[in-house]
Amino acid sequence: MGTISYEEFTGSCLEFLKLSQELRDGWEAKGDALQEGNFYLMKLERIEDVLRDCPPPREKCDSDKDGNTKDNIGTIDIMEDCEELCLEDPSAIDNTCSKTIITYEYHITYSISYSVPVLYFNAYNHSGKLLTLQEMWRRVSPQHSEQILHQKWESLTQQEHPVLGRPFYQLHPCNTAKLMTEFSKGRKDLAPVKGLTYMISWLSTFGQVVGLKLPILYFQCQ
Amino acid sequence: MAEDREILREVWDGRVAVCVQLASEDCNTLSAPDPYYLMVPRLSYFPLVTDKVRKHFLRFITTELNDAEMWLESDGTPLKWHYPVGVLFDLHCGGASLPWNLTAHFSHFPEQELIKCSSREVVESHFLSSLKEADGLKHRGQIITNMQSKDHKQLWMGLCNDKFDQFWAINRKLMDSTPEEGFKHIPFRLHLPCQPPIQRLIRPLTDDGRKVTLGDLLQEFLPDSSNEGDRVVIQGIEAPRETPLQWLSEHLSHPDNFLHICYIPTQMS
C-alpha cells in the first residue's frame, strides 16, 4: 500500500514529463528507463532566497576563494546573475538588504528499498557554493518546519545520489508509503492512488517542504 | 538467530592497518609531521576512529584550518567516509601493500564528491538510516519500527565503543527470520571501482524453494562481466560463489545490516 514498482515509477514519470513539457515547467528525463535503477527526473530552478543571511553580493562576486571545484551545472550562469544584481539593480536601496538567488537542482529518483519515489536536491548560492545542511534546515517551509526539524536528522540529510554517486540532500523516504496510503483514504472509491495522480500527489507534498512549487495547472490537467 | 556466532565475532574483530600522512599543501611547518599508524576496525566508519589522527596533525596546520573538517584520500581518490572502513579498504587497497597509505587533508574539501561530516551526529544519522532501510528490505521495516529509540542508541553505542555483546543483543532481532523463508529481500550493495554501488531487489529463495547464492546475484546484476581473476570480496575474504545469500546476510553483513560486496575486476587487482 502506498508503494509503486519501478515500472510504475518510470511510467508515471514519463506521463508527468509530458505534462511538464506542455506547461513548460522545465523537468527533464535522465538515464535509461529500461535499465533498473538508472532513470530519474531533474529540474533546475532559480528561487529568490527566503532568508536574508547571504553576505552582500558585491563581495561574493569574486571567484570562490577556497578554490573548490565548480559544479558543472550553471555555475557560470550563477556568476552572471550575481553581477547583474551587483551592478544593475536600480531598485536596490542597500545592497546588503537585497535578496539573493538560490539555484536549486531537484531530482526525482526511485527507492528500491522503499518502493517509492525520493526527492533529492542541491542548492547553490550566488557564488556557486553548495548550501550547508544547517542552511537547508533553515529553509524548510514554515508549515513543515516543526515536523521536519523535530526529527531533522531523520528527515533531511545529505545522502549519496543512487545514480550519480555524489552528495545530494534528501528527504527521507521511510514515511512516504504511509503518507501515500493516506491519499488513497481521501478518495471516494478508496482505490490506491497510481500513475500520474500518484506522482503529482507525492511531488506536491514533498516538493513544497523544500521550496518546489507545482503550478496549479498540474492538478487541473489530470 | 545466527548459529555461527564465532564467525560474527571474527568479523567484528576485523582490522586493517592504516598509515596516514598530512597533505603537503596543508603542512604549515618546516618539517613534516611523522605519519600516524593505526589499526582501524573494518566495521567502523573513519570519522569515528580518526580523532587521534586529527589531534596528531593539528599543530602542523595553519590556525585557520583548526576547525576545518579533515578528509582522507587514498591514491588521489577522496574516501567516502559513509562507507564502512573495510569496504573502502577492499575497494581501494585490497591488501596489495600494507599498510594502507592515506593522506589527511584539511583544506579544499571536495564537496562535489564527499558528504560533509561536521559531527558524530551525521555518522549516527547515516548509520540509523541504513539500518532502517535494511530492515525495510528484510522485514518491511516492522522490526526496527517496533524498537524503542534506546535500542537504536544501543546499536549505535555498541558500534562506537566496539562492544560486540551490546551491539548483538539488539542486532540479533534484526537478523531474525524463519529458517524456511529467510528475509523478504536481502539488503546488499555491490561495489565496483569508480561507479556508484549497485543496489537491487533479490530474494533469498527462488520460487521453487532453492537458496539463492552469491553467484546467482552476480549473474543477475553483472551478467556481462565475468573474467578469470575477477575478485569478489566480502569482509576482506573471497566468498565462494555457491554460498547462500541468506547465510551471507546473517553472518557477513556490516553493522548497518547491509551485505557489502566488492567486485574487483582482474585488471585492477
User: What is the average per-residue confidence, as pLDDT of chain B, rounded to a whole number?
Assistant: 94
The end-to-end distance of chain B, rounded to whole angstroms, is 36 Å
Unreliable segments of chain A (pLDDT under 50, ≥5 consecutive)? 54-88
Largest sheet of chain B: 5 strands, mixed
CATH superfamily of the largest domain in chain B: Phosphatidylinositol 3-kinase Catalytic Subunit, Chain A, domain 1
Query: Could you tell me the strand content of chain A as a percent range?
Result: 15-25%
Main β-sheet, spatial strand arrangement of chain B:
2-1-5-3-4
Q: Biggest sheet of chain A, in brief?
A: 6 strands, antiparallel
The average pLDDT score of chain A comes to 80
What is the H/E string of chain B?
A: HEEHHEEHEHHHHEHEEHE
Instruction: Please provide the count of β strands of chain A.
Output: 6
Tell me the number of structural domains of chain B: 2
Q: What is the approximate shape of chain A?
A: globular
The greatest interface between two protein chains, and residues involved on each side, is: A-B, 28 and 34 residues
Classify the helix fraction of chain A into a percent range: 25-40%
Q: What's the end-to-end separation of chain A, in Å?
A: 22 Å
Structural class of chain B: alpha+beta
Helix proportion of chain B: 25-40%
